[in-house]
């Protein structure tokens, strides 16, 4: 089968013939219908503290159809997405059948599908996943939207960890797929004002379509611009970009005893002035990924029609077109969520 393979820093992904996966006990194999390109994939293929090994097949936002099953809960033809969170490799934990502390994605031994060479991802025609991580798509949820469950779950998890409540004022910095997901679920949680700061014209337009009460063109005075748009300072700020200096920007924009939730990934060292946060007693919260329940809640919301993430899909490419589309996303223009259709 074909797959897009990482061949080293500074090199584009290469579409190669690789061995087709076979379902091992407790596994299923999916024909990949759709797979999203994630910002984490871009970060993991450029210089920083974490770079995936050469030979890695990326891709952890996916959905498809079961073609091979070694687990009685799944049959060929089932439509499935999956948490890309793999079982702990610690023998003591494996003996218990699950992580003793239920750390999930936070387990130090965890390997993310598509971000480890020995757990190939879905930039491929087929992908093997553990049946325990697989989740059937409800009727009425197309496989295309099934590939958005993973990034939507990141946004949902960030909002659930935050203090967003009925009547909150929320600032979201960045209107990429994660910022848009945070916007959707912050509104669903009852925030009365969700202002999104974004430099890109296309992404600002999408933020307005997907629930933002105001969009800010990355103003020089973010504090004043937010207050004008929302009627007061932000109760919660979500950093959905991960750029140098942005956490300090959030500290400066926060109200006393406000909360900053860091969702965006920055792979290099950064600097803050701690006293500026101390003087406000700011709650600085980092978040990672999601829990199994977040996937279930996203699927419930999609099945009930309570959320519509379709507008964030701006581009579709084939597997052969993926390497060029991947490199283009390092400096995006009109792209937001790019979906790959490996079968063409």
Question: Descriptors for this entry?
Answer:
344 residues, alpha/beta, Quinone Oxidoreductase, Chain A, domain 1, Rossmann fold, seven-stranded mixed β-sheet, 26% helix, 22% strand, globular
List the helices and strands and how they pair.
Blueprint: E1 2-5, E2 14-17, E3 27-36, H1 39-43, E4 61-69, E5 79-82, H2 91-96, E6 126-130, E7 134-136, H3 143-146, H4 149-161, E8 169-173, H5 177-188, E9 193-197, H6 201-209, E10 214-216, H7 222-230, E11 236-239, H8 246-253, E12 259-262, H9 274-278, E13 283-286, H10 292-303, E14 313-318, H11 322-328, E15 337-341
Parallel strand pairs: 8-9, 8-11, 9-10, 11-12, 12-13, 14-15
Antiparallel strand pairs: 1-2, 3-4, 3-6, 3-15, 4-5, 5-7
N-to-C order of helices and strands: EEEHEEHEEHHEHEHEHEHEHEHEHE
CATH class of the largest domain: Alpha Beta
Radius of gyration: 20 Å
Low-confidence stretches: none
Structural class: alpha/beta
Give an account of the 3D structure:
With 344 residues, this protein is α/β, with parallel strands linked by helices. The chain has two domains: 2-148 and 309-341, Alpha-Beta Complex (Quinone Oxidoreductase, Chain A, domain 1); 152-286, Rossmann fold (3-Layer(aba) Sandwich), CATH 3.40.50. 26% of the residues lie in helices and 22% in strands. The protein is built from eleven helices and 15 strands. Strands 3, 4, 5, 6, 7, 14 and 15 form a seven-stranded mixed sheet that branches. It has a six-stranded parallel sheet with strand order 10-9-8-11-12-13, sandwiched between helices. Helix 4 (149-161) crosses helix 5 and helix 4 (149-161) packs across helix 10. The protein is globular, with a radius of gyration of 20 Å. The two termini are 13 Å apart. 46% of the residues are buried. The mean pLDDT is 92.
